[in-house]
Amino acid sequence: MITFSDRPDTMALTISQLRVFTAVAEHGSLRAASRALGMAQSGVTQQLQNLEMMLGATLFTRTNRGVALTALGQRLLQRAGAILGECERAEQDVAQLRGEYAGEVTFGMTTEPLIDALAPVLTEFRSRFDKVSVHLRTGTSRMMIAWIRDGTLDFAAALVSKDTDTTDLSVTPLYPSEPVVVCRRGHPKAGAKSLAELTDCTWIATRSPNLTGDTSSNRLLSFFESHGLPPPKVIATVEGVFEALHLVGETDCLSLESSVLTRRGPFAGALRTIAVRERPTQQNVCLLQRAAIPLTPAAQELATMIASYTRTVRSRER
User: Fold this and answer.
1) I need a labelling partner for 248 at 20 to 30 A (CA). Which of 76, 157, 260, 268 fits?
2) pTM to 2 decimals?
3) How would you class 9 by CB atoms within 10 Å of its CB: exposed for 0-12, middle for 13-18, buried for 19 or more?
4) pLDDT tens digits for 7-59?
């Protein structure tokens, strides 16, 4: 790529430039991007040259396989994704306010609200808005919050504790979560009554990828520390609840998870709760979204349906 050193005084970044830049980054070559965009390759090249000249920076380097992002290009790609996402949401917002329900809703769920509400709510939503595509992402609460902040998600239903940083988010509490110690059925310590009886057991912890200080593992450590016990013997840290529960169901390892996992969902038949008298720090399942940006009508409808259904389910269990 050519680097232009003469940078204009006034920047005039365009959506077209960002779309071309993003397409090249995603496809790895100008030729593939031009096919995807339905543009002449010369037009793609010109857009990129104009963008690099305006920014005064090299965004791509040539390789044997095409092009690769520079460090500055990688940073711009993050911004471009958020900007283009908001443009698409703005278009969908206007169309949906006119009564044309189409487009896409991208939302996130941690395991507990997913088990409580996803299947019935999604079925009802699709019956009412069959032209709206639905994209679900799962993971830890920290992952959900990061995705909301960078514009990847419209909203999420996730766990929030008193230590969770939600300063720039709109938080709607749905119901309190009940974390419990879970084990496989037939576990030799299944009848334990205190956490002290489990100090010689091995544990599985969950953690967001590349985040060593994730609250999922800290919660387990804090649980032991707050009751004057030595740290638990964590033999593996995994990135998803499915992996954690699979290991718990197949071994004598324990894990600290939501009680709903022992009552509903794919692992309910293989797991049981160890009813120790100590209780971990309470967390709430909450609906999260960016505070300064409204949801599209379709996203708002889905969020409202999830909130209503989960509250109804939990009120019946009381």
Assistant:
1) 157
2) 0.67
3) exposed
4) 445 557 888 888 888 898 888 888 888 888 888 888 888 888 888 888 888 99
Give me the amino acid identity at 286: C
Phi first, then psi: what are they for 135, rounded to 5°? Answer: -125, 120
Range of the domain at 21: 15-83
Q: How far is CA 228 from CA 195, 201, 285, in A?
A: 10, 16, 28
Q: What is the pLDDT of residues 157-174, one digit of tens each?
A: 999 988 788 989 999 999
Question: Which residues does residue 132 pair with via DSSP β-bridges, in sequence order?
Answer: 103
CA angle 63, 64, 65 (to 5 degrees): 90
Instruction: Tell whether 124 is covered by a domain.
Output: yes
CATH code at 26?
1.10.10.10
Q: Are residues 44 and 127 in the same domain?
A: no
Domain holding 225: CATH number?
3.40.190.10
User: Are 197 and 214 members of one domain?
Assistant: yes
Asked if residue 68 and residue 153 are part of one domain, the reply reads no
Q: What is the mean pLDDT of residues 78-101?
A: 77
Q: What is the DSSP string of 214-280?
A: -HHHHHHHHHHHTTT-PPPEEEEEESSHHHHHHHHHHSS-BEEEEGGGGTSSTTTTTEEEE--S--P
Given a contact cutoff of 8 angstroms between Cβ atoms, the answer to whether 277 and 180 are in contact is no
Residue 10 domain flag: no
